[in-house]
Design brief:
By secondary structure, the protein is α+β, with helices and mostly antiparallel strands. It contains 13 helices and 15 strands. The longest helix has 25 residues. The mean pLDDT is about 90.
């Protein structure tokens, strides 16, 4: 069966339609922790059902299997059509908009909305158990024992305990805070999700998540679209040639704003330009924008109640930028901690897999990495708050500006 390599933006119309039919964008949040959004798998499946006849026929005849990438990988590794195991872990299942966070099982009342049949769904398992063995090849017989979504794996790899958070600076920014066994329903635009479940009989740990679409992508945009830097590393050296942004603020809402705003109609804006503004000011403003977005995510998490973040653990490609990390500590008014080993996602998956086979015990998750770099705030609370206020003025100017591109 040939499927489109990527889903078109047309499936955003389906979200609008479902929201109109149900009458409330937050209707799914009480069960799944998620709002109506094209980001989640159920709406992608609904688009395929309505637009790809082969998918509709397979679902209607109970010949379809549904799952996220982890499901497909485990299925193929364990034999595929020759007896492959069809499972998904709790963290990936929690991003489909179909799993009940409390029961950790599929929520049947949502099936009709998305044309789901029970037979097509994978069995939901923990992040730390044997799912099956590799079928054939040089790794034949090796057990597959660890599986997590990438951001949850990074949370685990950073050994974040209840009340601790990590932020991954990749193409975008992804901040997760471990809330322990408590499910916190967000009132500030964050997502509630499963953090990890370290065994079939272990209790699930939960998290709040906020994300911004542009972090490392913004640095690449400076290089590829504006041509003001020739490499990501140059963003640091260029930004350091000026002491501040010179009053320039950059809102990188190229495709809208995610948490805590969730404004898909926002568009990018550079405000505060003057005759003395240079490419260095624009570059520094972009780096600062990444930090402002993370500050707003942390503020939202602190506003949810229950826990208060005092430090932030970081990883990801852009976290290698020392200036960016110092600016982040300044605007957060909190220490930023960067481990020397930056592959936190791989570490988390390895920790879960090793725990399942007894390679190590739960003590490994409270072991603090030996080599870290800590960035401390170098500006006052008043200055950080003043600059945040200016950033929010710039945000207001970016809202609902999608319409400016109509006809172009």
């Amino acid at each position: 069966m040939l499927l489109p390599p990527t889903l078109p933006y047309a499936h955003s119309d389906i979200c609008t339609r479902v929201e109109s039919q149900i009458g409330n964008k937050e209707v799914f949040r009480a069960v799944t922790g998620l709002p109506i959004s094209t980001y989640f798998s159920a709406f992608k499946l609904l688009w395929l059902y309505e637009n790809v006849p082969a998918v509709q026929q397979a679902i209607d005849s109970d010949e379809a299997c549904f799952g996220t990438v982890d499901s497909w990988l485990i299925y193929q590794l364990t034999g595929g059509v020759e007896g492959g195991v069809h499972v998904t872990d709790v963290t990936n299942a929690s991003r489909t908009l179909l799993m009940d966070l409390r029961t950790l099982d599929w929520h049947a009342p949502f099936f009709e909305t998305f044309h789901i049949t029970p037979a097509m769904l994978p069995r939901i398992v923990s992040n730390c158990e044997e799912y099956g063995k590799v079928a054939g090849g040089r790794l034949g017989g090796v057990p597959i024992t660890g599986c997590l979504g990438d951001q949850m794996a990074a949370l685990l790899g950073q050994r974040c305990q209840c009340g601790e958070a990590k932020n991954t600076y990749g193409t975008g920014c992804f901040m997760l805070m471990n809330t322990g066994p408590d499910i916190l329903e967000s009132r500030h635009g964050l997502l509630t999700t499963v953090a990890f479940k370290l065994g079939p009989d272990e209790p699930a740990q939960y998290a709040l998540e906020g994300s911004s679409a542009v972090a490392g992508y913004g640095i690449s945009w400076l290089r590829d679209n504006l041509g003001i830097i020739s490499s990501p590393e140059e963003s640091e050296t260029l930004a350091m040639t000026v002491p501040d942004t010179g009053g320039v603020y950059f809102v990188p809402a190229f495709g809208g704003l995610l948490a805590p705003y969730w404004k898909p109609s926002a568009r990018g804006a550079i405000v505060g330009l003057s005759g003395s503004s240079t490419k260095a000011h624009v570059c520094r403003a972009l780096l600062e924008a990444i930090c402002f977005q993370v500050r707003e995510l942390m503020d939202a998490m602190n506003s949810e109640g229950g826990v208060f973040l005092h430090t932030l653990k970081v990883d990801g490609g852009a976290a290698k930028n020392d200036l960016l990390m110092q600016m982040q500590a300044d605007l957060l008014q909190a220490p930023v901690i960067r481990p020397s080993f930056q592959e936190s996602t791989s570490m988390g998956a390895a920790l879960a897999a090793g725990l399942a086979i007894g390679f190590w015990n739960l003590d490994i998750f409270t072991t603090i990495p030996a080599h870290v770099t800590t960035y401390l705030p170098s500006i006052s609370v008043e200055e950080a708050d003043l600059r945040l206020g200016h950033w929010k003025v710039a945000i207001e100017k970016s809202l609902d500006s999608e319409k400016l591109g109509v006809g172009h």
